[in-house]
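--- STAGE predict ---
source: upstream dedup step, 1 unique chain passed
mode: sequence only
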Amino acid sequence: MARLAQRVRELAPSQTLALSAKANELAAAGHPVINFSVGEPDFTSPQAAMDAGRAAIDAGDTHYPPVPGTASLRKAIVDKVAQTTGRTYGPQHVLVSNGAKHTLYNLLQVLVDPGDEVAFASPYWVSYPAMVQLAGGLSVPIPTRASDGFRLDPAAVDAALGPRVKALILNSPCNPTGAVADPADVEAVVRIALDKGVTVISDEIYGALVFGGAEHRSAVSVDHPGVAEGVILVDGVSKSYAMTGWRIGYCVGPEDVIKAAGKIQGQSTSGACTIAQAAAAGALRGGDAEAARMRDAFAARRDVMLEALRAIPGVTVPEAQGAFYAFPDVSSYYGAEIDGVTIKDSLDLSTLLLERAYVGCVPGGAFGADAHLRLSYALAEDQIREGVGRIAEVLAGAKVKA
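--- STAGE serialize ---
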């Protein structure tokens, strides 16, 4: 009898975490690693968050929190959502979890029965298929193309939402592509899903990080009578407020789904850390000025990253309008030999870049797009230039086989 459960035997490990761990090992051994693989801001959390966290410690706020979240944080969340989307919720519509990843996991456990289908755009965040699989569901990737900016075409969504599709995950701005869905497309896609009785899970963790005139449209701001009961907003403080280590995410949506997700959470992790919740409330209430400065820095870094990548022969890069990722197409180098290694796919190339140039990237195959690599530009500009320069140097040695 197998010792491990079938669900975990069949589960693929996260390539993003695996490549990051390998990069960290090399850095710890003294190698000059530049790590583009981690989706984590390099800034310190806002002062308002730090002050609120310290105040919670000083006040002795160190006991079990309510499973759905503290009253203070849930109030801060509904206030923020009303401010940014125009839609009003009550605290009973909010569940605070241990990061937005935990939030998404809870929701899929609540909504998906074995055999149900969950649709999402491809390329996709690496954990969507794994979470659907753990819930017993089946993934329905909806292809998008780099040639049109990875646009999620409403007609393609309409065709993909068959009778077994239980939920549609929207992710704009998108990890890994950096694409920002046009507001009109968000309107159309949400309407299509709701008219078919499909629940929309809108992953908006990068919603505050848009650049170059792009406009983020929240799915809960769509004018449709089914939004209140059929759309669930997922967000958190990790990306826009540089609070990854605090581990606070949340969902806002229909009360029955929120209560059910709280039931799952109550039997697994219980409530999120009280100190972290206090810090998150501090960020939502007083951290926007610092968040805006971070966003401006990401915009400048994006320009540096795109310019450097586009200078490499054979590399094409779609315009990234949000999040902090570039998603270059490097497939022109597949089949070539570099430093004695034949490059077959994105995993081969990312492994070579890490081992020979000490540059960490994530293979696009992890996101359903093997022609690409994902590079985070949440690093200082000099590191971006140095890291892409190393990539260019490695690729310059490619020898095309006859």
